[in-house]
Amino acid sequence: MRILITNDDGINAPGLEVLHAIATELAGPQGEVWTVAPAFEQSGVAHCISYTHPTMIAELGPRRYAAEGSPADCVMAGLHDVLLDAAPDLVLSGVNRGNNSAENAAYSGTIGGAMEAALQGIPAIALSQYYGPGNVTLDNPFEAAAGHGVAVIRRILDHGNWAEGAYRLFYNVNFPALPASEVKGTRAVAQGLREGVRFGVEPHMSPSGRRFIWVRGGGQDRPSGADTDATVNLDGYISVTPMCADLTAHGALAGLKAAMA
């Protein structure tokens, strides 16, 4: 198997090392793992692409590249430049430092990388590691992802919907903030919404008297409703959520058509 990996935390992020180990085991001794990741952190860029300016790409070592762009840029660089001779069989994005459950999914560069791969017709999975009291003091906070990532991905590859269509599905995986031995299992669930949690800004004055704002998120320890991602993560389960780039609210379409007729 030929696997392309990327992330949004940057080429030197520890989660990318965890993902490389996962991908290496999945690819097998005859497989290949290629890395094209952002040269600098790109958290929160979602599915942004560098449409109006060029992206520099540099080879850092065998099958290892850094691009001055977003995760979606990195996937395009991987498919249409680095791996131009033969497309990968799978794109993996992550392992993100922090969860991409619930509303976080809308902002996530990790998910943006997987979404771009799906739009390009390549099977793709995004992986993220919840941070919390159960894992922040571990020698390896990514222990749950490292211990269960291969098995979860294999199950998704075997049982996921990989049919080609107008918008191909990709999968969003979130690991709970626990040691690997304490993970309770895996649940296929919908994306949720943490009640009352919103991104916002916090203003600060610089020493020179200029006003700046920092974007800040809400509490990540709140559930997101029954049978949804953040809730099962907080309960100790790995969440798997099928997603696609089609933003149509299909449930509202029939009524709107009738009103517009």
Automatic annotation (TrEMBL):
Enzyme class: hydrolase
Chain sites annotated for binding a divalent metal cation: D8, D9, S43, N96
Keyword check for Zinc: no
An annotated GO cellular component: cytoplasm
Reported cofactor(s): a divalent metal cation
Chief place where the protein resides: cytoplasm
Residue ranges annotated for the Survival protein SurE-like phosphatase/nucleotidase domain, each copy included: 3-194
EC number annotated for this UniProt entry: 3.1.3.5
Catalytic activity: a ribonucleoside 5'-phosphate + H2O = a ribonucleoside + phosphate
Role summary: Nucleotidase that shows phosphatase activity on nucleoside 5'-monophosphates.
Protein name: 5'-nucleotidase SurE
